[in-house]
Amino acid sequence: MDMALGGENERRDTAARNGRTRLLDLLRHLVCVLALMWTGLVNGQPFFFPDSTNYIRAADLAVHLASGRTLSTAWTARYAEQLPAGPPAARAPLPDRPATAEADHRTSANDLKSGLVMSGRSPYIGALIYAGWVLGWFWPFVLLQAVIAYLLIIMVLRRFDVATPRLVTLVTLVLALTTSLPTYNSMLLADGFASFGMLAVALLALPGRLSRWQIAFLVAVMVMSAIAHLTHLTMLIGMTGTLVLLRLLGWLRPPPRAWCAAIGTIVVAVLALQATTFATRMAIGRAPQLLPLLTSRFYADGPGQKFIEAGCEGNRFEACRIPMGKPYNNAAWLFSVEPQYGAYMLASPEQRRIMGEEDVAFAMAVLRAYPVEQVTASARNTLQQLLWIDYDALNQGCGTVPTCWESLPPSVRARFMRTPSGRNAWPRDLMNAILYAAVIASLLALAVTLPMLARRDRTAFVQMRNLLVITGVGMLVCCFFGGAVADPQYRYQGRLIWLPVFFALVAVLRTRQARSMEDVLR
């Protein structure tokens, strides 16, 4: 009897201990996830970026049209009056060229009345952000990104056999306190998925066992990343090419799952782009309009301006025939509505369409005319992008003037203006100093620990080397696209810069573990 009672008490104690352990694990996971979105929580709402409203309204427009224009939200009013009347088949054809070039200095690159909808803003990531708005003021979207980041952190730590609960928590909190990861998790953009896609590619490519649900999760992250933004797709293509190179060098033999996932994701992303074009044509009457990014970039670099001033090969490009001020950078060339600075926004919708279609041809003509100057400028822009990682997204306030964030619905704008971001109250300089210090310390740590890891744990060194190469190429592709093709800005590198800090932590932990094993063997 006493033995039976003793066994029962022991089982109860074990169950209680297991319950406490599960509760503590749950609390630990909750703390880590919240830490990975702490800047948004402190801000009181997720961070807006000027592009955020385009993502939200693209999804809002799709829902509005799919419902027969019966469902609308606070975001609908801004564009509802611009929608063409009737279904596409019943509308009069849009004119190829307006009778007069409108000189209303539009403040939006989108003009639904003229069938002008800009491409480049993924409706798929817009749908996720929009769902977050409908379900709870965007917080579900932020939570989703924080959870994905946390799961990827755990999976990388497991791959290097350093995923104890204490180390997972430690690494997560260090990343949350010293890097930009929580801010990009809290931002209403596609940017967070850039680093997520890179880690998913690397985890699938590195040797090691993955369960079916882990593979499914990583593939889903890759697909979402690739369809979220065109830069993510170019990064994926670059990393896939890197896998081919590593295989040829004999450094890495990627498992079949990596090839299937990479190629399949590229195909899905291309089909998604085609689906977006088709849906836009059906809804608006025309395909999405490409921004002439290369034209504006090459003009701002100098060679494009020289090309136009030299006669533009008989003025054969539309960019040579539009009124043009003196833009101080490519963003002004594209978006300024001031005649002394702007170009693109001052043109008619039809002229904008033609410039988008001629963008690559114009850039190639400039490159043929001024190859050395343009290549030098592109290399300089890429280097600038590589080194630019600031926290500039934190403060988005612009005062109380009527035009400040007029793209936001009044209720959303009022709430935004009360946040630290709307009041420019974030200590950006201090946070930048911490970020730069963490990145520099991480690069030094990698330089010190990698040779030690090569001597003490060759397998881990090879894994880390391949991880750095695969993700490093993705970062370089991103820097080239952001610097040489678009416009150098903090976001493109800032959204990825937490990865070197993360990899340095992993390398240090793995080196420490290898050294401890050597001490035990001695």
UniProtKB/TrEMBL annotation:
Key word Glycoprotein present: no
Spans traversing the lipid bilayer: 26-48, 137-157, 164-181, 213-230, 259-284, 433-454, 466-486, 492-509
Keyword Transmembrane annotated: yes
Spans annotated as Disordered: 86-106
Keywords, ordered alphabetically: Membrane, Transmembrane, Transmembrane helix
Top-level taxon of the source organism: Bacteria
Low complexity compositional bias, start-end: 88-101
Name by which UniProt lists this protein: Transmembrane protein
Species annotation: Sphingomonas endophytica
